[in-house]
Design a protein that fits this description.
By secondary structure, the protein is α+β, with helices and mostly antiparallel strands. It has 2 helices and 7 strands. Helices cover 22% and strands 46% of the residues. The protein is globular and about 45 Å long.
């Protein structure tokens, strides 16, 4: 499953970067990310992330260890960040990958996020839930960036 979402803002690239470069900032604007606790001294930088979603009267959660595998900011002030699931238990797991791109615009910046998930269970339900949370997160982040 591949999902993408974009947000145009009058905020600068560096301001947007402040909300998306560290996963522990995501719970303040992305309702799907319940918690994101940084690992101490990890190389690459990693977080234990709990995703939580409500489906009717039920709540489901999933814990993932995510690493920041790419962190690039170039002279033109565009940025690319990639977070990927990397568990340490030696077992095979579904892939979760979040690629974040920020580019300057004439009036601010444009943020585009691409989420990939290759799990096999309940993909239709998962996609619907993710889309709802992405829409809410985009609204929340837009409000934070607007000040």
């Amino acid at each position: 499953m591949e999902l993408s979402a974009s947000l145009r803002t009058t905020a600068s690239v560096s301001t947007v970067l402040g909300y998306v470069r560290e996963l522990d900032a995501y719970p303040q604007w992305m309702p799907l990310v319940h918690t994101a606790e940084p690992e101490v001294g990890g190389n690459p930088v990693a977080w234990m992330v709990e995703l939580r979603a409500r489906v009717g009267p039920f709540a489901r959660s999933k814990r993932l260890r995510m690493v920041r595998s790419v962190m690039q900011v170039d002279a033109a002030q565009s940025a690319r960040i990639v977070f990927e699931r990397r568990e340490l238990d030696g077992r095979a797991h579904a892939q979760w990958r979040l690629a974040v791109d920020i580019v300057p615009t004439e009036s601010g910046a444009e943020l585009t996020m691409h989420l990939s998930y290759d799990g096999r269970f309940f993909v239709g339900v998962v996609e619907s839930i993710l889309r709802q949370h992405i829409d809410e997160g985009r609204r929340n982040l837009g409000e934070l960036l607007a000040g």
